[in-house]
Amino acid sequence: ILADDMGLGKTIQTLWIICNDNFDSFNLVVCPLSVLEHWKDKIKLFSEILPFTYYGKDRGTYFHNWKNRAAAGNGKPRICITTYDTLVSDRKNGFLSVSQTKWHRIILDEGHRIRNTKTKTFKTLELFDATHKWILSGTPVLNRMEDYLVLMQWLGLYTKEQANSYKRKLP
Questions:
Q1: 27 by DSSP, 3-state: which?
Q2: What tens digit of pLDDT does each residue of 36-60 get?
Q3: Can you tell me the distance from the alpha carbon of 159 to that of 157, in angstroms, rounded to the nearest whole number?
Q4: Could you say which of 6, 111, 129, 150 has the lowest number of CB atoms within 10 Å?
Q5: Which DSSP helix (H) or strand (E) runs through 107?
Q6: Measured between alpha carbons, how far is 39 from 60 in angstroms, rounded to an integer?
């Protein structure tokens, strides 16, 4: 979890780490629509990576084409950017290509949005598999201890049962 005030460089720090992968890595950035262009602009400004935006009408077709081309490999990381709402919509409509991809890294920007396990957003993101999961937030992530436990659960640091056990012990 990288939780810092807004404007202090969480995006750039994240990109620096991704750009230093010396292998073909598939990275998924999930963010609110309001910062989608920000991610695209920063990736283009600070890296040689051409980001793929998974958003819009024909996104499924474009994703398959991007993934197939990227699978050919050139020893560089790949970044796919999408929104929380896009993934929830895909799940609702049975489009599971993105969630069935084995990602090297999934980055949730404004990740405090998943702090409730009963939401469609959390349930959708729970389907995703990645070697590394990161949460970025410029907003306080902790209003209640349960919020923090949910983030830890998504990161894979606690199982659902462990998180529920801790919740029962809270005052």
A1: strand
A2: 999 999 999 988 888 899 998 889 8
A3: 7
A4: 6
A5: strand 102-109
A6: 20
